[in-house]
Structures are given as C-alpha cells and as structure tokens.
Amino acid sequence: MIDLLKTKVKKRSKTDFIVLTGSFLVIFLLCSRLDVLEVIHNFSRAHETYEVDEIFTALILMTAIFGLFAYRRWQDVKILSLFCEELSMLDPFTQLPNQRALERLLLQLKQGQSYPCSFLLVDINGLENIKNTLGLDVSEQVTIELLYQISLKLGTDQLLINRNTSQYMIFCPVGTAQSNAFLIEQIKNIELSSRFNSLQAVKIECVAIVLLHFVELQTIFEALDEKLLQL
Model confidence at 93, in pLDDT bands (50, 70, 90)? Predict the structure, then answer.
C-alpha cells in the first residue's frame, strides 16, 4: 500500500511541476503582449497618492513568506513520510521487522555484496492449539516469551524478522554451516516456564541456508520451506 502511495505522490509531483511551468509560460507571454507592468507603472504614477506601486513590495515579501511556509510544511511531510514508512516495516503485534523490511534488507545486500550470509527459519508448532484451548491472550503471551528467549540466543549483528504468525526469520550477516547448526540447537532447546501443561505441546523447528550470492526472497522462502518439510 505504501509503495502505491509513494508512486502516486511522485506522479502527482511531476504533473504539478509541468502544470506550474506551463502556467508560468502562458502568463508570461500574456503579460508581455499586454505590457501589464507598464500599465501598472503608468497608473501608479498617475495616482501616486494611492501608493499602488508599494503593492509589488508587499507581494514580493508575501511570496518569500509563503515560500518559507511551504518549505517548512514540506519538511514536516517528509518526516511524517519516513515515520510511516518505518511503521510499515514493523509487525504491529511483535514489533519485529516484517517481510517488507526483509525485502529492503535483501536490496541492501544486493548493492553491498555482503556475502556469504545466512537465513534461518524458525517454525513454532502448537500455538494454534494453545489459542483454541487457553485463549488468544495465553497464545500471545507464549509467542512473546518465545521471541524473547530466541532473541537472547542471537548476537548483536543478528536480526529476528517476522514472517507470519508462527514462522520467523533470522538474518545472520556472518553465518556459516557450523554457526548455524549451533544456533539451531540453542533455539530448539528453548523451554517455556509456565503453569499451563498445554505449553508442552509447543515444538520449535529450525532450518538454515547459507547464501553465497544474491537470490530473490521467494527463492529463499522456497529453499527454507523445502528443508523444513524434510525434517
């Protein structure tokens, strides 16, 4: 949705620029043919007591003031646009980066050529059963606790990303097969402490791939899903 809005704003800006430029040229040609400024000058000299010529000074000052006002409003809109774009990259429930943020990350990787790197897929099974038996609140508490425990296993350069309600991605900028296996083992050994016996049904599966070059996001998802099905 935000990409569509940004595209519309860019098109509208181009249209406005063309319209304003065309309007300026038309008005300039009309005024030059009618000698408007000379007419006003002669009128102001003939009726000097009315100080008509001072209107131009006031108009120039008002133009400068409105220009400053427009610039400040443009800065405000720019800040709000960046804020809205940042919000669009966060999952509203977990406050984790979402798939849109993941796409932006891949674009940066493509431009920076930061390879090899790794992506891990964390699949949480059993949350739907908890939701059905204990309610939505308990299911959300379990999800938050799991994400907190997973975040404790991550390094400062690793990023946890929301894919959907039961699957999460982990980006490792310096990930090898050995480091991925160690991280997977740590995540799979996470235990939940709760008075609800139903939480024992929660099971965490985790798979990883190492990227040696840029690939599309859909290709990454397909490779991780295929590995997950093989477990």
Answer: confident
